[in-house]
Amino acid sequence: MEVFFQNAKNGELTVSIDGFFFHSSYSPQKEAQRFVENLKFPFSPEIIFITEPGISYCADFFRQKFPSSKLVVIRYLTDFKQFDNKFDFVIDFFSFNNNSHAFEKFLSSHFCDSEILCSVFCSWNATSKCFPDFEKSFWQSIKNVTQKARTVLITSQFFEKKWFLNSISFFNFLKTSVSLQKKISNDILIIASGPSLLPVLSLIQKNQNSFFIIVLSSAIKCCFENNIIPDLCFSTDGGYWAKEHLKILEKYPDAVLALSSESCCQKSILHKNPALPLIYEDGISKDLSIVSGIDFYNAKRNGTVSGTALQFAMEYSTGNIYFCGLDLHSQKGFQHTNPNELQINSQISDFKLSSAEKKQVSAMLNSDSLKVYEDWFCNFDIQNKKVFRIIEKKDRNNSLGKIQDISINEFEKLIPQNKIEKNFDNYFIRQNKRINLEKIKKLIEKKFFDENIKKQFYPLDFVQYSHSKNSEIIYNINEKHKKLFDKAVSLFPNF
Predict the structure, then answer these.
(1) What is the pTM of this model?
(2) pLDDT digit string (tens) for 67-90?
(3) Residues 6 or more apart from 475 whose CB is under 8 A from it?
(4) Fewer CB within 10 A of the end CB, N or C, for the chain?
(5) How do the residues of the chain divide into helix, strand and coil, expressed in percent and rounded to 5?
(6) With contact defined as beta carbons under 8 Å apart, do 492 and 437 qualify?
């Protein structure tokens, strides 16, 4: 692509790309002024993203018209680098080599979801003519990122309050917290509940003493019913249904459960079962966890517990990691290996017009979330770890990127020969620390009504306010927040 700088008729610098004038050949600054003046936004944006504006004449006019907005430039060429100082942030789109997922990941990591939804995106007049392929890819990525941001904020607005109340229950009722003695040196076997788990259950049962076994919440009942004893049960979901999967642990009070304070869990299990506490990198639950006085282990937020478990295993173990039951694709019949607590609950409501078969078909057709999780695994960097998925060829409806698929026969050949003595003391140690409820209470009193905390609990409402500046929205937020505080206080003894 030939980029040629020259003087316009009025003496200002202009440029042509492959013989096409990218800026006016008469008065490029006047052209940029008209461009900005003609832009109409329905709200005052936090960020203005503009794709390849060339010499950046438009930047000064953006600042005049939108003085409180940050300016981000999306560069399609290196030739305009000398004009980048006009902007607050520069993204070299060409450096992603048409990898739209990498670009979307970059945006999500550098701009929070509420910023994305309070931003506007525009292109310089000539950009679509000179860079049609880049433009097509960019706008598709923006569509994907904004949809994801909206989904995340919908989830946050619904669950943040539940996570907060779950945390209070966690700190009030947890009796025994445990720590890892050291990094786990044995190979890890992570058991999920997809249909591909069924044919490998007997092999796992016979060789369970060769692995440190992490069982995800939806597979806990299936494992215990097949005489597979987990070294660590793993649950991260803050919703009611996740709690149903944990019911069986009431029969196994020695089973160690890894969960965050935000996770939904029965009070009786928190009281009886030893827990390995997890801490996320953000949110008020992190602040509460830090002042609680007990030790926590790092966990990454993920749409699926299997993703969080994989990252936990990578950080806290040194051996190979094997996954089973990680289908992440709808299969014929049940979408999980039975027995499954939710399937048992569902059977209660089976009748002629809502049969088990009808529910199975519905589950097969509604697999959007599985696709999201599949994409995450496909693009996850396993670094230098060896990570395998045990699944027969007939069940391989997808690929998980760098995670290697192996058959049951191949897995059998890789099973370590040394047997592990299944003993709590081999891996865990009970923490001799008590949860400091007084510090937790004081932190809630001090921080709960901060503006940042409100934005964490009601992100969609604040986005709506940013768009409309309707004071009634703020009034409603304050009313809801006061009710949440009263509910939180009621959960503490002697607050």
Answers:
(1) 0.81
(2) 999 999 999 999 999 999 999 999
(3) none
(4) N
(5) 50, 15, 35
(6) yes
